[in-house]
Amino acid sequence: MEAYLDKSLSFARRAEDLVSRMTTEEKIAQIISAAPALERLGIPEMDWWSEALHGAAREGTATMFPQSIGLASTFDPELVGEVGRAVGKEARIKYEQYSSHGVRDLFKGLSLYSPNINIFRDPRWGRGQETYGEDPWLTSRMGVRYIRGLQGDDPDYLLTAACAKHYAVHSGPEPIRHEFNAVVSAKDLHETYLPAFEAAVKEARVAQVMGAYNRTLDEPCCASELLLQKVLRETWDFEGMVVSDFTALKDFHTGHKVTKDAAESAALALKHGCDMNLGFVYMNLSESLERGLITEADIDKACIHVMTQRLRLGLYETPESLRVNHDLLDSPKHRYLNLKAARESLVLLKNDGLLPLTGKFRSIAVLGPNAMSISALKGNYHGEASEYITVLDGIRRAAGDTVRIRYGVGCELTPYQQPAARESRTGDDASVSFFENVAPTFNLMELMGHGDREAEALAMAEESEAVVLVLGLDESVEGEEMMGGYSCDEFAGGDKKTLLLPSNQRRLLEDVLDLGKPTVVVLLSGSALSLEDARIGALVQAWYPGALGGQAVGELLFGRFSPSGRLPVTFYRDIEDLPPFTDYAMKNRTYRYFEGEPLYPFGYGLSYTSFGYDGLQVEAGENVEASVSVENTGSMPGREVVQAYVRWDGGDETQPRWHLCALGSVFLKPGEKQRLTLSIRQDALYTYHEDGTRAVEKGSYTLWVGGGQPDARTQALTGSTVLKASFRL
């Protein structure tokens, strides 16, 4: 038996034998993402590029969960792990379905370029929606669980191959990512930008790591001696595969100008540990070899890493752990999990008593460009669901037959967007195709102008007792490198220039509030927006809540459950409160270092009930454990997210004022009380120094435990304080 078929040997040994049987040209072809079949060795073609941020994406029908930032707001790593497991199984099913019909092309594979564990350091970044927020510890916990879910439980074989991206120090701006150099201190690098990747490698054993487009400290991330060799391979002992981002190697000579041509770029990446090229630059490796820029051994090393992954994915055998029941695809079980995730993701930011709406109004006007939008449910890097429940749908279902629901779109998503460009059409929009086909000389926008849309919406509001305004953004304005999209005062290449709603939505909001009706605002967006109008009775941050997100929103508004989502990012009042977008230093960024007062703090979220805490005790031995009693002191059952923050008392102004170190949650009926123990991991107690070194320092620590941060703004918004204790190490 050939060694590569011998299951008694290690995957690495089998891969070595397999690669030894290939020609140079064959090896090069296998380390390019669109890898061809190699029939004489029984290797079918495989395209390594598939996506799965919040569901199996871009490959047909699959369960579409809330976007990653929404999953982060659950503050529930276990739930995120369940979502990851469902996504991994559905991706395996889709692969088997397609490959059984001979289809193995783009987005049909088992290599999933997810999760995105970059730090959402600046609210302007359009791709921040793909992340788990601004906190390194929370991102680490969510990322580890999601990766484990995607990859399955077998210690040897992979259900799918997860990919931690984008390594490292990457979070915009989008328009300059192909030439940008991110400059950070050693402290910020190791304290903020690397911990989630370290956890992905060491704890989750992530199969792949993707290099970022930009340079970090002058080195292209996909050919960084510091990141790929010294940190990833040598310090963290990463044994998996490194892949470039799409066309990132081309940037070496076209954007970063660190090489002269494609052959040099290919050689630089390969020599520094990039095993696979997502793109085409590695097609030049034969020339690189001829010019003496690389050796055959360099190609072998990369190809062995790649073929090891293929073997772990079941190239020649399919163990029982990789067999998945195809009935799970888009199943009731996954649908229930999707709805649960959507419910837990919703964050109630403000409520003056207006919510829940149940029994208060006989008629409600549901207005706004995202009320009936399917696009606003999705977020970017999405799949396609078999059913979508918009916010308007969800409100109608939750309201029942006794409440009259009136609807008006009010305005387009932005003042720059034509009605025909929107995925979700109102009844009036259905006439667009008729006018375009039958009367192309008509100026449709003049006929259907903004004033008509707003006039209709205001009439709906005037004739109703209350208003639900569904506003925000969608993937058409915030997302990845939209160089052909809007470039205006509000958006640029997928990023935001402001924290305000688009100007036409602001006008609609002002005009509706001027009517004096009780008004709820629901925001669908992937990032923080700033709304401070005191006339808003209630404010819900719904993110991009997935295919069933509208049902979850409707249920929340009508009190079918008590909200429990928490903000994984800080909501700032104004962009002027922040450093420049291109400044990657953490000074005055995120809750750990922000020097001003936030609009809504990290970790914040309201409930329909109330919770009391008492009896905080801390035991600091070999491990640190905090126990606390939590009681539902309100009148409604609810889930409470219990948060612990810590600070080493010996730190100076260069250290965080405090940082999240443990999480837990309890679901309690009114009057019910439960004692909860939080284990504080060693990596949550590290102090990072200016040279990048870290240690669990000796001395006194302060610990806070409660429903949010121990800051004055959280206390003012919630009307409650957190418990405080000290311990020594």
Reported for the largest beta sheet, the result is: 6 strands, mixed
Under the CATH scheme, the architecture of the largest domain is: Alpha-Beta Barrel
CATH topology of the largest domain: TIM Barrel
The portion of residues assigned to helices is 25-40%
Give the termini separation: 57 Å
Which segments are poorly predicted (pLDDT under 50) over 5 or more consecutive residues?
419-448
Spatial shape: globular
Q: Widest sheet: strand order?
A: 10-17-16-13-11-12
Radius of gyration based on Cα positions: 26 Å
CATH class of the largest domain: Alpha Beta
Mean of pLDDT: 94
Strand content: 15-25%
Oligomer: single chain
Q: How many beta-strand segments?
A: 26
CATH homology-level superfamily of the largest domain: Glycoside hydrolase, family 3, N-terminal domain
Count of individual helical segments: 22
Question: How many domains, as an integer?
Answer: 3
- Helix/strand-derived category reads alpha/beta
